[in-house]
TrEMBL record:
Pfam families membership: adh_short
Family: Belongs to the short-chain dehydrogenases/reductases (SDR) family.
Protein name (database record): SDR family NAD(P)-dependent oxidoreductase
Membrane-spanning segments: none
Amino acid sequence: MPNRDDGAVLITGASAGIGRAFANAYARRGHDLVLVARREEPLQEVADILSASQSIKALTLSADLSDPAAPKRLWQEVEDRGISIKTLINNAGFGVPGNLCDVNWARHRATIEVMATAPVHLTQLFAPSMVRQGGGEIINVASLSALLPPHAGGTLYYPVKSFLYQFSLAIREELRSGGVHVTALCPGFTETSFQKAAGGSVESVEVPRWMWSRPEDVARVAIAAVERNKAVCVPGLLNKVIATGFKLMPGPLGRWLVRSDA
């Protein structure tokens, strides 16, 4: 069980992809971990490997963040164990392919709970103790899509990620005086199990492999960004160019460019 004086790192969606890359990176830095995911077996595998190879302590907590009660249960478990959380990484997420009216509501509700409600609730629960401790770090994993015009298909994904991006900027200002750094991470195409978990997602399109990022690189630049107290982190030169280009161009032109029939 994590018990370092400088606090542990809590990562949601830690069993694979960017979440696992964050776990690897922080473990190599000597930080104890609280790893959260739905799937208990791969989560425990990550914890066992890192505990043995990096001589850190890793606690695994299986949780389905689509359950509105899950964030409070996680916080209570951490509190009951006396674990101090210095860094919170809201990474869990998935895509929903198809048009809004073609997908059942339960799937859409889960999308909102996992990628919008849960990050806000976890931030509300863990931020006060960070302030009392004199500071902390929060990384909210949004998406490059939060900075681009949305298009049809996977309709809910874009506004949810935009919400998480805007929430990060807002809560950053609220927590600034308490010494808590908040960074909105906006990765582009990344080699993860995201597409498989989505059953084919809003990002499962034909994209040249050179446009994809490695999760290890995304985690590395995100950690550097939050340590420097950067508000937004867009990993990769190409992604930065894309984000800047759409920011500067007129809105109607940007929306036309991303239309599937354009």
